[in-house]
TrEMBL record:
Cofactor dependency: Mg(2+)
Encoding gene per record: glmM
Protein family per UniProt: Belongs to the phosphohexose mutase family.
Entry-linked InterPro entries: A-D-PHexomutase_a/b/a-I, A-D-PHexomutase_a/b/a-I/II/III, A-D-PHexomutase_a/b/a-II, A-D-PHexomutase_a/b/a-III, A-D-PHexomutase_C, A-D-PHexomutase_C_sf, A-D-PHexomutase_CS, Alpha-D-phosphohexomutase_SF
Tagged with keyword Phosphoprotein: yes
This protein's record includes keyword Metal-binding: yes
Species for this entry: Thermococcus argininiproducens
GO molecular function: magnesium ion binding; phosphoglucosamine mutase activity
Domain Alpha-D-phosphohexomutase C-terminal positions: 362-434
The name this protein goes by in its record: Phosphoglucosamine mutase
Highest taxon, organism lineage: Archaea
Domain Alpha-D-phosphohexomutase alpha/beta/alpha: 2-129, 148-245, 250-355
Length: 456
């Protein structure tokens, strides 16, 4: 059994994420690092301080030193680790429900641990082969506030002043500490919603999906904002509305940045996750670049493998020239810079990015049968669509690229008891046809396997 999913270790408090687990992760990471400094941060969740204290105790017991930077967004933890640490840990469940929490581990470059590093940590935990430091070599812990230094470094990188009017929905998360201050220092006129950190997420659900932030559409249009931006609980994700109140699809935003990077580099390699649109391929290839797809949560592996100039999955963006971690704050700063430099409304800037018909929906599925269901769905979908398939990609479940340019993806969630079904069609009718096929198949298989499970 693996502890790590697509985004660290994540799940419900007490049933999966416990103080004992945090203690053991701390001991394992301290054993892995052996010596040096580990940077530790946490989000606003009610259980985060509890887990932080347990994790820090485990780290100190192995003799490593700990730099606690407190309540921070995940991108800032990654940045601080790159600057000051030999490894880093963020206590967060990102956009999961408030009853969940989690642990993300970063290497000395601020990159989430690669698969092989996660496996080494798991081996230490499962074998309980922890280093025990003698009483006179226990590690030391100190606290440090790095907020201003982080903002200043982003400002230097973005290097732009703006007068744009921006509506920010912080979702009661850690972005409240950085985003409003960053944009005001850039000169933007900023109005905030849900900008008081609260681990109960009272303003809205933490995940910035359209259905959770649809109210921003009327606000941005009626109040005359140039755009609206929403972030999730640990502020590594963003979602955007243009000045007309239109939700900007995640893949359109990825395509915008991918095209600009390909233009700047006169080509180059772009890495995106398995669940992204063909519109990205189209705009990148027009600029002489190439798109590579990787499993969810493995953008950093893709950057390393393909020497990528830009990497992204829905809502998440990595700008390698700034740092090798997902950083929504750099993305926001660069987005404002793009709008100003183009000299026209955001809706006009993205108008020429191709639009396809894409739908994403989850099917709830118990953890114990999730992977069995996906395997059976993969088998049956290949049979049902056999005469239409152009390419089969078997990472993060299975993606079938079809001859007409449409595609179907079925994959297990790496963080929740769900199966993700994603379909993109070249027309609305084609999208609905393929989605009905895939979604109904997965739903039926979940019921079928659930019945078998109860019967046994």
């Amino acid at each position: 059994m693996r502890l790590f999913g697509t985004a660290g270790i994540r799940g419900p408090i007490h049933s999966k994420i416990t103080p004992e687990l945090a203690l053991n992760v701390g001991k394992a990471l301290g054993t892995y690092v052996d010596k040096g400094t580990v940077v530790v941060g946490r989000d606003a969740r009610t259980s985060s301080i509890m887990l932080e204290n347990a994790l820090v105790s485990g780290l100190l017991s192995t003799g490593v030193d700990v730099l606690r930077i407190g309540f921070v967004p995940t991108p800032m933890l990654a940045w601080a680790t790159n600057k000051l640490g030999d490894a880093g840990v963020m206590i967060t469940a990102s956009h999961n429900p408030p009853s969940d929490n989690g642990i993300k581990v970063f290497n000395e470059k601020g990159i989430e641990f690669f698969l092989e590093q996660e496996e080494e940590l798991e081996e230490i935990i499962f074998s309980q082969s922890y280093k025990k430091s003698p009483w006179d070599h226990i590690g030391t812990a100190r606290d440090l506030n790095l907020k201003e230094q982080y903002i200043d470094e982003i400002l230097r990188y973005v290097n732009h002043e703006t007068k744009l009017k921006v509506l920010l929905d912080m979702g009661n998360g850690a972005g409240s500490l950085i985003t409003p201050y960053l944009l005001r220092k850039m000169g933007a006129k900023v109005v905030t919603l849900n900008a008081h950190p609260d681990g109960y997420f009272p303003g809205r659900k933490s995940e910035p999906r359209y259905e959770n932030i649809a109210y921003l559409s009327n606000l941005v249009r009626e109040l005359g904002f140039d755009l609206a931006i929403a972030q999730d609980g640990d502020a590594d994700r963003i979602a955007v509305f243009d000045e007309k109140g239109n939700y900007v699809e995640e893949d359109t935003l990825i395509a915008l940045f991918a095209r600009l990077y390909a233009q700047e580099h006169k080509g180059g390699n772009i890495v995106v996750s398995i669940n992204t649109s063909f519109r990205i391929d189209k705009v990148v290839e027009e600029e002489g670049g190439r798109v590579y797809r990787v499993p969810l949560g493995q953008l950093h592996d893709g950057i390393k493998k393909y020497n990528a100039i830009f990497a992204s999955e829905p809502w998440k963006f990595i700008h390698p020239e700034f740092g090798l971690w997902i950083d929504s704050f750099v993305t926001i700063g660069l987005l404002l810079k793009i709008i100003d430099q183009e000299g026209k409304p955001f809706s006009e800037i993205i108008k020429d990015i191709p639009k396809y018909c894409l739908i994403k929906k989850n099917v709830k599925c118990p953890e114990e049968i999730k992977y069995q269901v996906v395997e059976k769905a993969k088998e049956q979908l290949r049979e049902l669509l056999s005469d239409q398939i152009e390419e089969v990609i078997t990472i993060s479940g299975m993606r079938l690229n079809l001859k007409d340019g449409s595609w179907v993806l079925v994959r297990p969630s790496g963080t929740e008891p769900k199966i993700r079904v994603v379909v993109e069609g070249i027309t609305e009718k084609r999208k609905e046809e393929l989605f009905s096929l895939a979604y109904n198949l997965v739903t039926r298989l979940v019921l079928e396997f659930s019945g078998r499970s109860k019967g046994s």
